[in-house]
Fold this protein.
Amino acid sequence: MQTRLCSSRSAQHLVQTLAAALVATLVFHRVAVLSGFGILESDPGDNLLNAFLLEHTYQSVAGNANWLHPPYFYPAQDVRTYTDLLVGPSLLFIPLRALGLDLFSAVIGSMLLMTFLSFLSCYYAARRFFKLPHMPALVAGALFAIAYPRFSQLGHLQMQFSVLNPLIVGAAYSVLKEGSLITQADVRRSIFTIALCVPLLFASSIYHGFFCGLFLLIMFGAAMLFPQSRRQLRELIVRDYRIILSGVAIFAVAMFPVYLVFADVLASSHRREWWEVSRYLLTPSSAVWLGRENIGWGWVPDFLNLAHEPIRWAEGRVGMGITVSAVVLLYAVASFGSSFSRHPSNSQFFLAAFLFSLLLPIAWAGDTSLWSFVYNWVPGAGGIRAVSRFYFFLSFPAAILFARALNSALQMPQFRRGSARFCATLVVAFALVEQLGVAMRFNTERAAGVIREASAIISQDCDEFLLTPRADNPFYLNDTISRERFSETAYLAANPDLAEQVNAGVWEHFQQRASEELRFTGQLLGPYTEKRFDEEAYLSLHQDVKQEWDGTGWEHYQQYGRFESRALNREHTNLMNRYHTYSALVSLATGIPTVGGYSGREPANWLLRDPLSGEIGERIIAWTTHNMRSKERVCNVRVNIKE
């Protein structure tokens, strides 16, 4: 009879968990679902790149492409290592494509699956490792799956692969908390889980992998501060050192392929300057700040006419909300109060590790931050730029601590009354609603239309191509040059094959044929005028110029910026990126490689960052000449992209 009741309860819990995970997923991705997968909830910049990389991986698995050599930045080699490998999301994307979903539907479907599985993963960790009852574990799963930091990173699909975070942290927590009190079988499962999942995390997102390793290190240090945990862990190491060494060996073997792929990148990568990192540090209010898109608090800054302006990019909107922050803070005060000092618990290191981690990426005065110690002393930290994404990783321990606080409150005598439980339900409900926001979005059918339009324009005679705007695009910098500024000598010197073909009418040849044939003028164009130049936007976008350049922004742009393909403002940046990501997607559709590209790294001597520049034709020639491919036909495909 008891067995039957337990089985019935387990089945009921399973149904409730799956239903809650489904509801959370549908609410979180409500725009995409209600649009029939016609809307992708993000800025299309990075997710268009991710769509290209996922599709290229799918084509590679099908035997139609070389995985290490995606057809962008052509003819540069090994460009797959220029960004995250997306192995985890690919494991979801490839089956969806194999089932017949189109490119964008498979991307959206992958995002829904990652949210659904993140809920289940958090629920499992809460029950299995943190020993929470069913209902608090459901709350933890929901908070983690729809956490505002996940919402703020919808534009970075690789960051959505948070399925492994609860499993890794939970497994490490169980070992650090219990030590020698758990069985060798449980130690083996936990150690092997960490050894296998962390490499997969690195192979999916470098940021997730690094932050996971950092939090595990902090957890270990916090556990060493508590005598009980320290003693039990020491006994475990003595007892199970063979299992631990086996886990280290498995981890090394699993990480080796990832290392091989990134070996050349690691050898050539340089430490980022501190100013590149410090601009992503957070303010003390960032733990609760949720941005203007937030349903709960987005209206507050405008209503109160506050001077505080949120950081526009996603890395500045990673807060966990007022409700979650307040509940976790109260739980921390209660845990470390007088009762704790008399009866210390060997699980408090998890709370201590979380609180310390919250402080790491915060700047307290200028760019003074604890992160400087991470930057200087933790291996690999010098290459991490968006340090505020650490809050994304911390959304899991925050969800666990919120659920633990809820569970502790519900066990108190005063919470046995209906009114108290009703108030607790309201707190949980608002904590969940507080996570929701109104995401950026773009129309996938319109994006597919751009790909079809550009693909139809490209001739099969093209060896390579690049998408550039038509002359009626408002951002297009006119690539004409006046007769007075035109130098026949420079034009003929830059195009020696014309010396015999054009005996007269050099100017006429330039006007009629230069654009079509992508001819050098022999002199750099500079059509952008000071009158059109927005100095404030330029300096705001390029903090290194603002901090290190003594002259005006216009002087820097004239002397250096335009030659470095620096964007004029954020809208210009977005459109530049869009042309490159669409070029990459069109290359997959046509089978013709593109000289364009967009990723975290760029090839050496690649001068094509700004396809809106009037000098882009000359820069294409310079790139192909640099790679000794000047005899190949590079097509300059004119399309207007309005996304």
The chain is about 60% helix and 5% strand. The longest helix spans residues 227-268.
